[in-house]
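In the present case, backbone shapes were mapped to integers, as reproduced here:
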Amino acid sequence: MMQIIAFLILTLLAAVALIQGLCLAVYCVIANYRKKNYSKQLIRLKKTVLFFTVVVIVNAGLIIISQFTAHTPKIVDADGNTPANSIAELKELELNGRKQWISLRGWDQNAPVLLFLAGGPGGTQMAAVRHELAELEKSFVVVNWDQPGSGKSYNAAKTQNITVQNYIQDGYALTEYLKERFTQEKIYLIGESWGSALGVFLVHEYPESYHALIGTGQMVDFVETERMDYAKAMEIAEINSDTALIEKLKANGEPPYYGEDVTWKSAVYINYLNNYMAGNPSIHNPGYNTFRDIGSSEYGLLDKINYLRGIINTFNHVYPQLYDIDLRTDYARLNVPVYFFLGRHDLNAPTVLAEEYEQVLKAPDKGIVWFEHSGHSPWINEREKFVEEVTRCFLGHATRNEEE
């Protein structure tokens, strides 16, 4: 936080000096060409300098205040009271030398810890999970992590230096912090979209640290997924005679993409499929409330800007690093229970790949839970069922033992 404040102060001073210098330069030019009314021009110049200085100071002040006052709301029950042992915290950590942010929310700090791994790479779902999965906070301490290059952690590392291994290293460091803080030998993982693959990487490398993993919107083979998405978008566009989209897809060519246009080229078919799913009457509660999420209290003004920068810049840099990964061959054995929560109508992450992965996967326990009224985001489309199934998969065995 102090680095951010120092940066803002230096930026403010530099901006003020620049504006004043420019204004004085303009004044000198005017003075050279117009040898009259100097006093009036000087007064106007001073007013202009004062105006821009005030604007810069006010804007910088708003940014600083918004970053300082960012918070996650308190846990409250139906009567508006805060449970005595609850936790609602927004915290900055240093993980392997990279400063990153997490939120911790739960009705009971002694409950099992559940780490939610957001999609992306470059996405932040800190606010979205709080809004959509608040019921999980009654059974778990729910932890959301803004990964390097996303949201509040956008500046954890230079975008061009972020690697997949960074996410694995930092995810493990965060896991160890949570285990120590809450005195637990293991924690639970939920991974969404890209986060579902990151979850697999983590339980593969460090099985002793995790009770179980749930992958939703499960990614399996990244290149094959992109090609299938491209083909599906082309198929729908041809059925709908959407010539504009067909021309864009043909102009971009079939994925995979590289270089500076990965995000924008991928967005052509991904956004088209997302819009198609949003219009599918079989899918309930069709998707993200982006304006609600980005406007949430967890994000200061800089965070809100970085919310978007991560989706564009970090995705563009990191996603091509995933092209050579196929979980069916590279991660066919995991030493923790793994469950796949799949939306029946998911067009973003083709479920046929997740089914194939589940078939070849060797794990202590595994299974697929289908969400008949969901697309790529069952945790949003059918949040009540999602919470029920998470509780059943993660806590069902412990609950049965207690009953016995």
Q: What stands out?
A: Residues 2-33 form the longest helix (32 residues). The chain has a mean pLDDT of 89.
